[in-house]
Each structure stands twice: as structure tokens, then as C-alpha cells.
Amino acid sequence: MDITNAPPGTTTGASAVGSAGVDIDRVRATLMILGIVLHAADVFITSGDWLVADTHRSAVFDALVALIHSFRVPGFFLLSGLLFSRSLSRHSTPDLVVRQLLRLGLPLLVCWMLINGAQHALLAAAHGQDPWEAMLSFSGPIYHLWFLRDLLVLNLLVLAWVALVGRSKRRAVAGQGRLSRLLDRIEGHGPSHWMSVALSGAMASLALLIVVRLTGWAYAKGPGELSLFDLAFYAPMFFAGLAMSRRRGWLEAWLRTPLWLLPVAAFAANWGDVASDTLRSALAREMALAVQLVGIWVATGAAVGALGRLRGATSGGLGRMLSDASYTIFLIHHLLVVALALLLLPRDWPAVAKFGLITAGAFALSLAFHRWVVRPFAFMRLLFNGRLPSPQAQTAVATHRAA
User: Fold this and answer.
1) Rounded distance, CA 81 to CA 88, Å?
2) How far is residue 401's CA from residue 403's CA, in Å, rounded to a whole number?
3) Exposed, middle or buried: residue 224 (CB in 10 Å: 0-12, 13-18, 19+)?
4) Please, are residues 239 and 81 in contact by the beta-carbon 8 Å criterion?
């Protein structure tokens, strides 16, 4: 999701998803909160291979992690494409490059050095290493910020393509006209059922991953641990959002995926993820990858559609508050979950009790950090949300000072 393009509490993206009955602010806020639940559950999975591994574990948390993981990040990329499509129509390419570097690149850089640096130091201390050396090394893992990394790259690639096509205005207009006519023809014969959309998306994703692996560079690590395979894995979701902002019939069909299929799709995605790395036959691994991708596309359609139509918990004043704080929650919750998990690690308490404390504590502290540290100060909003003061706010300040 381009979590920074839409001012919280607005109806940005409503033209794309409103007809599908989806409230983009509600989905965005809910997916952010589910990130806390996901990472708190990671502490108690049976494999014990997360950053913090409690001795009290349960397969229930494995199932919870698999369920949320199947749709949460794909949902982010889908919403990002929907919102970025609107931004493309509202801003010039140079202006949008600057906006995205501020709104994605600056929080990515700041939180990589500060938040992830602090988390790296905490984990180093927990393992008997020098926390200051870890904090000051500037070589800490990117952790959950990989989403901003990939999203920024995808945004810049789209903007580069737009700039390249726009170098010849006449050619660009003609090309856009041909593309529009092609899309109009496709719309009449395109997917009209949720299963058609999910299968089309999964097969397009598989084709892209095959092409990327054929280059021989798929797993080479670039800046910020980026690889072509990682970028290509979720890129189709982002491009689906771009396309479906204009082809709402496809979006409406996809988001009508029955909710009861979500656990089935999550199981398929989780099985495919494991099997695509462990099966002995290359053909079997490719088939497992296809199963994983189908599971992801079905789960995303079911979950995003259901969350978007949900009423009550995230509406009204609470919903606006959560939407306003969603970016901050995403950036700092990971550190808070790790810190609280380490704090509770020596306690011989049931896993469910620790999980509840970690989830509630990380949520409350994230909201408090946004309310009293980020929101009141323009400089902090710039660093953590990538937002410059709005013209309205600047006018209000000038008027107040003049009075």
C-alpha cells in the first residue's frame, strides 16, 4: 500500500474501491494493527526461529501467523497500486518523485538507522554482544522495512516508465489511446468472477518469477538486501492495483471471494511456501510455488474484501485515529514487540498471556508515540511519516502569528 499518498481520514482511492464497497482507510488501519498481532505471534511459533523465541509455544500461533501472512503484505501492495494510480493522475512526474522519496525513502532511511538500529542493539545485548557496537555499525538488517524498500523501487520504476513514454508527447498520447482502447476491449471479455481474477493474477505472478529466475540474477543481493526475486514476488499485486483502479469490475469480482475460503487459501499458501523450497523435483517445486501464489491471491481477495466491508470497530473517531497513526504503527511496532517479548522472556507465564500483553502493549505504545511524539511536531511528521506541513496548516500558523 502506498501508505503515505493518502492523507488519513480522507476518501482517497474511493473512486477506485468505493464501487466495490471497500473503505481503503479501514483496510489500511486494520492491516497495520494485524502486523502487531502477526509479530507478537511469531514469538510463540513452534519452530522457535523468529528474532525472539519464547519457551512457551503452540501450533495455534503457527496457524495465526500463516493466516495473517497469506494476505497482509499482498493487501498492502494492492492498496499501494490503487492509491498510486490516483497520485499519478493528480501530480506531475517530477513532483511525484520528490513526494515518494520524502514519504517512503526518508522514513525508510530514518527508521532503518534509528528504530532498526535500536532493535539490533537490543537483540545483540540479549545474545551477550556489545549493544553499542551493534547500534553504531549501521549494518543492521532491514527487518520489516523491506516493504517500504520494495514499494519505493516499484514507484520509481513506474515513474521512470511514465517519464520515458512522456518524452514524446504525441507518441505518448497515441500510445495511451491505443492502450486505453485495448483495456476497454479486455474489460468486456476480462475476468468477471473472483476465481478468474485470482487464477489470472497467480499465473501472471508465476510467469514473472520464472522470467526473473531465468536472468540468473534473481537472488543477487543489492542495496538494502533487495533481490529481483523478492521484488518480483509481490510486484504483480502492486500492478494489479494500478490496473484495477481503472478496471473496477475486476476489483469488484476479486473482492467478492468468499470469506470461508480464507483459511483454506492460507493453508495452501503456507504449504506451497515450504514445499517450493523442500521438494526434490524441480517440477514439483514449481507446482508448489503455483499453489502458493493461488493461495495468496485467493486469500487477499477474501480478506481485503471482508475487511473493507466491515463496519463498527474501525469506524468513527477510533477509525480516524487509527488511520492517522497507521504509518507510525507500521514503523515502530516491530521494535516494541521485540522489546516487550525480551522483557517477558524470563517469566514463566502461559503463551496466551504473554501474547496478549505484547500485543496490547505494542499497540498502546505505538499509538502513544504517534500521539505525543510524532503528530504534534512538523519535523517528526517529516521524519516518521514523510509529510511536509500542508498549505492549510502553514496558513493557519501565519494567521495565528499575525494575530
Assistant:
1) 10
2) 5
3) middle
4) yes
Which residues are CB-neighbours of 139 under 8 A, at least 6 positions away?
Answer: none
Mean predicted confidence (pLDDT) in 27-39: 93
pLDDT digits (tens, 9 = 90+) for 283-312: 999 999 999 999 999 999 999 999 988 765
What is the residue type of 235? Answer: A
Which residues have CB under 8 Å from 316's CB, separation 6+? none
Going through 18-73 in order, the beta strands assigned E by DSSP cover none
Query: Which of 5-14, 258-267, 341-350 shows the lowest mean pLDDT across its residues?
Result: 5-14
Contact between 38 and 72 (Cβ < 8 Å): yes
pLDDT tier for residue 168 given thresholds of 50, 70 and 90: low
Q: In 3-state terms, what secondary structure has residue 337?
A: helix
- The amino acid at residue 132 is W
What is the CB neighbour count within 10 angstroms for residue 125?
Answer: 15
C-alpha cell at 389: 506541513
Rg of the chain over all Cα atoms, to the nearest angstrom: 22
Do residues 100 and 383 lie in contact, with contact meaning Cβ atoms separated by under 8 Å? Answer: no
Residue 18 CA to residue 400 CA, distance in Å, equals 38
Region 345-366 average pLDDT: 97
Alpha-carbon distance of 268 to 280, in angstroms, equals: 19
What is the rounded end-to-end Cα distance, in angstroms, of the chain? 41
Contact 40, 362 (CB under 8 A): yes
Say if CB 323 and CB 28 are below 8 A apart. yes
* Integer angstrom CA distances of residue 75 from 7, 28, 48, 282, 322: 19, 9, 26, 29, 17
In the predicted structure, residue 174 carries a pLDDT above the cut 70: no
Residue type, 384: F
Closest CA to 279 of 266, 267, 291: 291
List Cα–Cα distances, 140 to 49, 272, 385, in angstroms. Answer: 18, 30, 21
Report the residue count for the chain: 403
Lowest mean pLDDT among 49-53, 106-110, 212-216, 246-250: 246-250
**From CA 80, how far away is CA 13, in angstroms rounded?**
10
DSSP annotation of 91 reads S
Q: Are 221 and 278 in contact (CB under 8 A)?
A: no
